[in-house]
Amino acid sequence: MNVLIIGSGGREHAIAWALSKSPSVDNLFISPGNFGTGRVGTNVDLDVGDFASVRDFARANRIDLVVVGPENPLAGGIADFLRGSGISVFGPGALGARLESSKSYAKEFMVRHGIPHPRFWVFDDAGEAASFISTTEGPWVIKADGLALGKGVTVCFDREEALDVARSLMSGRALGDAGKKIVVEEFLQGQELTAMALSDGKTLYPLPFARDHKRAFDGDEGPMTGGMGAYSPVTDLDQKVHEVIVRDILEKTLRGLKEEGIDYRGILYAGLMLTRDGPKVLEYNVRFGDPEAQCILPRLEGDLALCLRGCAEGSLDRALGDAGLRVKPETCVTVIMASGGYPGSYEKGVPISGIELVEKEFPENEVVLFFAGAREENGQVVTAGGRVLAVTALAGSLPLAREKAYNAVKMINFRGAHYRKDIGRMPATLGR
Ligand SMILES: Nc1ncnc2c1ncn2[C@@H]1O[C@H](COP(=O)(O)OP(=O)(O)O)[C@@H](O)[C@H]1O
Ligand SMILES: [Mg+2]
């Protein structure tokens, strides 16, 4: 089959890499793609916001499956548009994508379907939000309702800060329309966990759990980022919690979607807090996590493309069998190497060295590099974004995978390179 992946991040490189290994794939295109995707497929320069141009490309190149990486085009209805033209798409339509594109919608969905969640309050009036914060005890978790590329949530321990954050979102429109409505949540304590599953609207296939590290610095200090690393599997939860997550969260969510007439085909992602009262859903995403994809996809064996197509075409059950999808027992550790200054401002165009060295030293079933903010300039790979690349290592245990990942990280150099030294060492806790 011919596959087109939409997106340009490390996640999309990981998806492209996994699909390039699927025996059922003949031609693989990525749009717009990046340096890494260009090594495993063909990058195509389409304006992916212009759905008609995506459709025209898909028709001209006899694309059998479009895989949508990021949330923005999904929220904008790209899956509905392409399906309307008879093209198979891995990724939910705009109605399903509301689970991510509106945090208040997602929370109300959890209420309707009895899915465990923190207590929450929704405001679209700045005065009411301020008087709520003034008359309640913190901490307050303040969330912009709409899509904010990971910049929409602030955990506030201080009342003045909470008032400020709410004001700047709602009156100051700090994130544009995404923050004109906010959700204020009860602050939950515990370890976080990412639970993702493949869905074809009827059948659910849970993927291995992962844990990501969101803060910029070691010990979960510093500002929130898009994610500085991840590891999988997560071994600090017992079988019972595992079952609760699959049954009472993932499966209940799919059932709820079905009841509401939403045919959900793609990744269902639950961002969880493991509390003393059990796991609770902080948020849904409607696509692979980044960097979770870089950490989970290398653990899968079998023909992933058949599975994604099965999701797109409502036949996941059969596809799983045909694909022989299996999870490797190995532990995977993914370390993000970022530009100095990220998530603030940073320099671009810095030469990256050591890529060939790593690829010569380690076989691909032990270490893989997934590129994000990197591009080629006159034969030299240079930085082009905040998160530059992900170093993923597989080994028989978490300490061994960590060691291997960091051995590879040390071989890669670029001016100002920043990475966390504790990925997979300590469970991510909430920073203050
Ligand atoms: N109710 C909560 N209690 C404690 N921490 C939270 C809560 N909600 C979110 N957080 C923290 O904020 C982070 C971002 O929130 P999330 O809802 O995942 O939004 P997004 O990923 O869109 O920024 C979470 O990963 C978690 O660390
Ligand atoms: Mg999140």
UniProtKB/TrEMBL annotation:
PROSITE patterns: ATP_GRASP (PS50975), GARS (PS00184). Pathway: Purine metabolism; IMP biosynthesis via de novo pathway; N(1)-(5-phospho-D-ribosyl)glycinamide from 5-phospho-alpha-D-ribose 1-diphosphate: step 2/2. It comes from the Bacteria. SUPFAM superfamilies: Glutathione synthetase ATP-binding domain-like, PreATP-grasp domain, Rudiment single hybrid motif. Its cofactor is Mg(2+); Mn(2+). Residues 107-313 form the ATP-grasp domain. It catalyses: 5-phospho-beta-D-ribosylamine + glycine + ATP = N(1)-(5-phospho-beta-D-ribosyl)glycinamide + ADP + phosphate + H(+). GO terms for molecular function: ATP binding; metal ion binding; phosphoribosylamine-glycine ligase activity. Pfam families: GARS_A, GARS_C, GARS_N. Gene3D superfamilies: 3.40.50.20, ATP-grasp fold, A domain (3.30.1490.20), ATP-grasp fold, B domain (3.30.470.20), Phosphoribosylglycinamide synthetase, C-terminal domain (3.90.600.10). It is an enzyme of class 6 (ligase). PANTHER family: PHOSPHORIBOSYLAMINE--GLYCINE LIGASE (PTHR43472), PHOSPHORIBOSYLAMINE--GLYCINE LIGASE, CHLOROPLASTIC (PTHR43472:SF1). Belongs to the GARS family. NCBIfam families: purD. This is Phosphoribosylamine--glycine ligase. It comes from Candidatus Fermentithermobacillus carboniphilus.
